[in-house]
Amino acid sequence: MEFRYLGRSGLKISEITYGNWLTHGSQVENDVATECVRAALDVGITTFDTADVYANGAAESVLGEALKGERRAGLEIFTKVYWPTGPKGHNDVGLSRKHIMESIDGSLRRLQTDYVDLYQAHRYDTFTPLEETMQAFADVVRQGKALYIGVSEWTADQIRAGAQLARELGIQLISSQPQYSMLWRVIEDEVVPASRELGLSQIVWSPMAQGVLSGKYLPGQPLPEGSRAADDKGGAGAIQRFMRDDVLSAVQNLKPIADDLDLSMAQLAIAWVLQNDNVAAALVGASRPDQVRGNVKAAGVTLTADVLTRIDEALGDVVVRDPAQTAANAPKKRPA
């Protein structure tokens, strides 16, 4: 395993980070989820990312149980707050002081830990003053419940405003967690330059574009049984933007490139995001332990400039690059 510094901090994390968005507490049984976590530990992954909203807290609980007994100082545990949780009452959502202070305690209890290494704003809350949000995060840090603060799917302007307030409050905003893959490059023009300037790095989710870049979905063919695109528990909705025949055809053009490098298409996709020097880690989930063992082989892979050019040519105009997509995909009203 390779390790990278997270932002302008002294914290190192594994460049392949285990995430449990659509798996723990929902897609796979708890014993299989635990086997996946054990497999991650066995191959050298030390960083684990979750959120209170995943399976309404169940994902945190499964992860906490799976990591029980491990040396806490040898792990980096990340979680997030924003989306509706618990009984989904009128204050069980957003980035108000009330929701943040109550949510961190719930997350720590489910994760069976005294602190998280990184506490992240899962989205930007347009209904709560940013000053209130950042002050609450600062208090969480000062209480020792989180070591660092991060954000997810914030625009460059929102990151700038948050980073300035964090500095004024004496805490470190060190990370951004956006979607990023060969097919979805919307962070490159604005979020990444702002992050470099401010001392944040990216922890990217969906480096395989919800599994599309694995090559298992073929244009004009039925969906593979048990695949994410066929999942009615949330996976199908997240993957739909990539399930067009032109995209699926372009993705198949990547297979000769992966074969030439003796990589699977999934490994090529993960290695690609790690070529960006502002990316600290690629978030990778798994529904089987063998997926973990396969994905980790992308760590430390270097892709030459010629290979990167071949990838761009293979995908052509199906790549989404518009930086406005970050704001366009943000919640337009507070979720209920």
How would you describe this structure to a colleague?
- The chain has 336 residues and is α/β, with parallel strands linked by helices.
- It has one domain (3-328): Alpha-Beta Barrel (TIM Barrel), CATH 3.20.20.
- Helix content is 37%, strand content 13%.
- It contains 13 helices and 10 strands.
- The protein has an 8-stranded parallel β-barrel with strand order 3-4-5-6-7-8-9-10, surrounded by 5 helices. It has a two-stranded antiparallel ribbon with strand order 1-2.
- The relative contact order is 0.15.
What is the radius of gyration? 19 Å
Beta content: 5-15%
- Give the CA-based shape: globular
Biggest β-sheet description: 8 strands, parallel, barrel
Q: Please state how the strands of the largest beta sheet are arranged side by side.
A: 3-4-5-6-7-8-9-10
Number of strands: 10
Annotated CATH architecture = Alpha-Beta Barrel
Give unreliable regions as ranges.
Answer: none
Distance from N terminus to C terminus (CA atoms, Å) equals 40 Å
Summarize the amount of helix as a percent range: 25-40%
